[in-house]
Amino acid sequence: MRSPRAGDRTGATFGDVALVLSALLLVATIAWPQLRAREREERIARVLEQVDAVRARVEDLRASTGAWPVPDGLAEAAGAPADGTPADGEPAPRVEWRRLAVAERRELSGQAAASSAQGVPQDVPGPPGPMFTLEHLGLLVVHDADDPTLDALLERYGTARSFVHGRSWVLVLPRAPAP
Asked: What are the counts of helices (DSSP H) followed by strands (DSSP E) for the chain?
């Protein structure tokens, strides 16, 4: 058997290992921001798809019934995920549908007051009071802690009908048309 000589050694030296590790670290440093940016773009695209799906669903229901639907399960039915935390550790955005009731007070005057007074039983004292009408607005709400997602929603839908409050973006859909 031959004894190994100093010049015949095989294997990696400390310098070789350090060089390979520093090259890997350099590649990771360059690639990491690009991977995170791609993940963020995919997340924004998913949220925009969910918002469009819920909006299309409620607008279809509104077109068929003439009023905004009640919120029960509409976001889930349109493909929005339930609350949860994906593998990357960030909380998933939550898409919700809400209906906001708006009460408007209208004073009765002249002919309207006289005609409504005829339908009032005689034992009710005083003139007829104001008339209240109840109308509904549709609200599509996205809860997310990711500011770029909320900014993308504002950019897409504009600030005339949408706004951000805290960590939620709200799109206000107009009142249902009068029948």
From this structure: 4, 4
Report the pLDDT averaged over residues 1-8.
58
pTM of the model: 0.61
Give the pLDDT confidence of 14-54 residue by residue, as tens digits.
888 999 999 999 888 888 888 888 988 998 999 999 999 99
Which structure tokens are listed for 13? 């030296």
The DSSP string of 119-139 is TS-TTS-S----EEEEEEEEE
Tell me the DSSP string of 97-112.
EEEEEEEEEE---HHH
Residue 59 CA neighbour count, 13 Å, CB half: 10
DSSP assigned state of 7: G
Q: Are 168 and 143 in contact (CB under 8 A)?
A: yes
Which residues, 6+ apart, have CB-to-CB distance to 153 below 8 Å?
47, 48, 51, 142, 162, 169, 171
